[in-house]
Amino acid sequence: MLGIKRQPATRSVIGAGMRVQGPCTFQDGLQIDGTVLGDVTADAGQSSVLVIGETGSVEGAISADHVVIAGAVVGPVLARELLELQSKARVQGDVRYKALEMAQGAVIAGQLQPQLTPPSAAGDAAASTPRDGGPREPTEPTLDLDRP
User: Fold this and answer.
1) DSSP E strand boundaries for the chain
2) Please, which residues have CB within 8 angstroms of residue 17's CB and are 6 or more apart in sequence?
3) What is the pLDDT of residues 10-36, one digit of tens each?
4) Cα–Cα distances in Å, from 82 out to 8, 24, 135, 142?
5) Where along the chain do its domains lie?
6) Per-residue pLDDT tens for 68-77?
7) Are 34 and 17 in contact (CB under 8 A)?
């Protein structure tokens, strides 16, 4: 179905009214309907999904393959594959993603940073070296919308 992998099952839940303090790591899927004060990170090497429900909030960095936000996040967000922001989502922090779905009403107070495939080193080696041989200033990534 459009190359989308089957999402892992939600194996853990932080329920409404529950408060967790400190960093959290998880495997497969995690649903947060309570409050987490600390980073929330999916274990590497497996497909992962993190869902922050409407009553859920996280104060810390978030990192997972597929991130769905309907609640509040204060901190940076890294969605290695897909970031879904539902209509009541509130994010204060920079957001990095490969693909983004954002519903009307969602709010982000931070930078949106798409994770683009870097250009090949061989093809751009000459273009990336300044004529004077000195260090080159970093440039912002751009999307090439004219490419077929």
Assistant:
1) 10-14, 19-21, 24-26, 29-32, 35-37, 40-42, 49-52, 57-59, 62-69, 72-74, 77-85, 90-92, 95-102, 107-109, 112-114
2) 34
3) 788 999 999 999 999 999 999 999 999
4) 14, 20, 35, 19
5) 10-117
6) 999 999 999 9
7) yes
> 47: which 2 tokens?
């497909």
Tokens of 29: 């899927």
The pair of structure tokens assigned to 14 is 């932080």
How much is the pTM? 0.75
Burial class, 85, CB count within 10 angstroms (exposed 0-12 / middle 13-18 / buried 19+): buried
* Residue 98 in tokens: 């490969």
For residue 33, the tally of other CB atoms under 10 A from its CB is 19
Instruction: Please give the single-letter amino acid code of residue 102.
Output: M
- What are the angstrom distances between the C-alpha of 80 and each of 41, 66, 105, 128? 12, 7, 23, 27
Let me know if 20 is exposed, middle or buried by CB neighbors in 10 A (0-12, 13-18, 19+). middle
Q: Give the single-character DSSP code of 117.
A: P
Q: What torsion do the CA atoms of 54, 45, 142, 106 make, to the nearest 10 degrees?
A: 0
Give the separation between CA 12 and CA 131, rounded to whole angstroms.
55
